[in-house]
């Protein structure tokens, strides 16, 4: 029986990049003190969620990966013996930027990065202004404690992304994310949106028979127009909620995942085995209408 303890860090952010990094490191330490072996930070945790506006000055927030933030986190990972999943704004070259997550192993080594594949362009989420779609493909990383798959926020709506990540052998799928409610919405709409967000990710756990860990930011941003809804959660490979965060509080929680359950779930609910891969070619079309 293989069990892994994962830490979820749900926090609010400020305009001060160093302050956010220091806070995240303190929370990684808190998670490690609670027994976490793998700690996942939320999407773009070193800053406010700046994609609410199209502002060229925000590109100054980007950094190389590896770079200053990963350097600081590698020291912490090595000291504490924990894996750290760190979502950062990557400057790849002059004028070329990505929404990227770095993975640092428990010995402090840099294992690599995943670049967000699906990029939204919605009111208050103008990510296509900032981020080039990922070109590394879907990724898994063999860490000391488990083989982990990383997807980022908008990727969470796409079963194709989670399926491919699972087929690459991911023991756990992690989703660093940043999503919230417009504060002028009614409560019913808020709950419908959150339920849709949680449901689609739980369905990835069920369809693939692997645990899913989703870590979201919390707090009011955008001059009070946006309430990031927190609600971070962890499920087992059958979609059962093992931990559910609040909508308005910072939280550092550690959850134990039993990775041996995946074999049981896949044997008794053999969705992975019974796939008709010979019939799936049309999925590569934008729409099936004869054109």
TrEMBL record:
Keyword Lipid metabolism among record annotations: no
Pfam families reported in the protein's UniProt record: CN_hydrolase
Domain CN hydrolase: start-end pairs: 4-259
Keywords, sorted A to Z: Acyltransferase, Hydrolase, Transferase
Single Gene Ontology MF annotation: acyltransferase activity
GO BP: putrescine biosynthetic process from arginine
Record carries keyword Metal-binding: no
InterPro entries noted in UniProt: Aliph_Amidase/BUP (IPR050345), C-N_Hydrolase (IPR003010), C-N_Hydrolase_sf (IPR036526)
Domain of life the protein comes from: Bacteria
Protein name listed in UniProt: Acyltransferase
């Amino acid at each position: 029986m293989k069990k892994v303890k994962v830490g979820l860090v749900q926090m609010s952010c400020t305009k001060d990049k160093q302050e956010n990094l220091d806070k995240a490191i303190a929370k990684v330490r808190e998670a490690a003190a609670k027994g976490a072996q793998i700690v996942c930070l939320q999407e773009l945790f070193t800053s406010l969620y700046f994609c609410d506006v199209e502002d060229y000055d925000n590109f100054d927030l980007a950094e190389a990966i590896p770079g200053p933030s990963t350097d600081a986190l590698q020291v912490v990972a090595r000291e504490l013996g924990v894996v750290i999943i760190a979502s950062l704004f990557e400057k790849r070259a002059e004028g070329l930027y990505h929404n990227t997550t770095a993975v640092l192993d428990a010995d402090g080594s840099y294992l690599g990065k995943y670049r967000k594949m699906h990029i939204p362009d919605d009111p208050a989420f103008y990510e296509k202004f900032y981020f080039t779609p990922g070109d590394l493909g879907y990724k898994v990383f063999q860490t000391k404690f488990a083989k982990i798959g990383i997807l980022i926020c908008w990727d969470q709506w796409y079963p194709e992304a989670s399926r491919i990540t699972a087929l690459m052998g991911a023991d756990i799928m992690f989703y660093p994310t940043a999503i919230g409610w417009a504060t002028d919405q009614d409560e019913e709409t808020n709950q419908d949106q959150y339920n849709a967000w949680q449901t689609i990710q739980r369905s990835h756990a069920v369809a693939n028979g692997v645990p899913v860990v989703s870590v979201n930011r919390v707090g009011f941003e955008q001059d009070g127009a946006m309430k990031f809804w927190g609600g971070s959660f962890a499920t087992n490979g059958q979609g059962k909620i093992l931990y559910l965060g609040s909508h308005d509080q910072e939280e550092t929680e550690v959850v134990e995942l039993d990775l041996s359950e995946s074999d049981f779930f896949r044997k008794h609910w053999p969705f992975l085995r019974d796939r008709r891969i010979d019939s799936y070619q049309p999925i590569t079309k934008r729409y099936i209408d004869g054109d």
